[in-house]
Design a protein that fits this description.
single chain, five-stranded mixed beta sheet, about 325 residues, about 25% strand, Tetrahydropterin Synthase, Chain A, alpha+beta
């Protein structure tokens, strides 16, 4: 009877021990796996609460893997064979750990992670540690390989296309790792100083050529305008000359003694209205009135000039 009682107590104690366990949580943006001394258990645990049991002396432990999107940035110097120069560049991207069970088991078996403080039954592996082991060498090598296929000028002119090729190549190379590529691209390119100086010099020359072309066009337009003015002035001069010829011709055809006498009388009338009452005329004027036209007109002109000078003094 005593032996039976002792067996009953032992059985009850075992049942209590087997039923005891610690409640733990898989936080958001994480996935988990249960592990025992015999290995990993089947199934990937999604965020939520669960109980870690003790069965037949075998403690369950929880392994957490950070599954949030991981932003990465790599700055590196790349040798450009086509230019025989070094180029500094930066690539950026976003990766996430795949929840595929095979990938999860691979990560847990190869990445140590760290035990959570005050709870030895929970171990956590962050995505930065996974990135350093699985992805960082691949990203740097692929980035160098893709970029080095171009010259620096080609790279600067086709940055978007180069970024697309870079993402495709990294996505392909990381397909066999625990990571899934969300996006990846060429973030920054810093060409060597010698390239920058050459580009600036070329741009200055282009600006100088444009300025010279502009000045040339202005000079040509001014010359064309001057030429048109000269043509117009020539037309005016020719028209005046033709008019003078016609006047002279008409005068030569129409002048007779009666016309000359009439004009001489008009000259004398004008002389009478002049304040200068003394005129010196050759005696021949009395017999040839035509000689009167020139001297009288000159005298009248002198009178007008003298009057203008006197008016300006007053």
């Amino acid at each position: 009877m005593k032996n039976w009682s002792m067996g009953l107590v032992f059985g009850l104690m075992c049942m209590c021990v087997m039923g005891c366990g610690e409640t733990v949580e898989v936080p958001p943006a994480h996935i988990g796996k249960l592990s025992t001394s015999s290995g990993l258990q089947k199934g990937v645990i999604q965020p939520g609460r669960l109980r870690l049991d003790l069965k037949w002396g075998m403690y369950q432990t929880l392994v957490l893997i950070e599954a949030a999107d991981c932003g990465v940035k790599e700055t590196m110097e790349v040798y450009m064979p086509k230019d025989n120069l070094n180029l500094t560049m930066e690539v950026r991207g976003t990766l996430s750990v795949s929840a595929d069970e095979e990938n999860v088991d691979k990560v847990i078996s190869r990445v140590a992670g760290s035990v959570i403080k005050d709870n030895y039954r929970i171990r956590i592996i962050d995505n930065e540690e996974i990135y350093r082991i699985y992805a960082e060498p691949v990203v740097r090598e692929v980035a160098r390989s893709v970029v080095a296929a171009y010259s620096i000028d080609e790279l600067m002119l086709n940055r978007e296309l180069t970024g697309q090729k870079l993402e495709e190549a990294i996505r392909k190379e990381l397909a066999s790792t625990p990571f899934t590529v969300v996006r990846f691209g060429l973030a920054n390119v810093q060409p060597p100083r010698v390239i920058v100086d050459a580009q600036e010099s070329r741009k200055r020359r282009e600006v100088e050529i444009l300025e010279a072309e502009s000045k040339k066009l202005i000079a040509l337009q001014q010359a064309e305008a001057a030429l048109q003015v000269a043509f117009k002035q020539q037309e005016v001069d020719l028209k005046e000359a033709e008019t003078q010829v016609m006047v002279d011709q008409k005068l030569a055809e129409g002048i007779n003694r009666a016309f000359v006498t009439q004009r001489a009388l008009k000259v004398l009338e004008t002389m009478a209205q002049s304040p200068n009452k003394v005129f010196f005329l050759p005696q021949e004027v009395m017999t040839n009135p035509m000689l009167l036209l020139g001297p009288v007109q000159d005298a009248l002109k002198d009178d007008k000039d003298a009057a203008a000078v006197a008016l300006s003094k007053n």
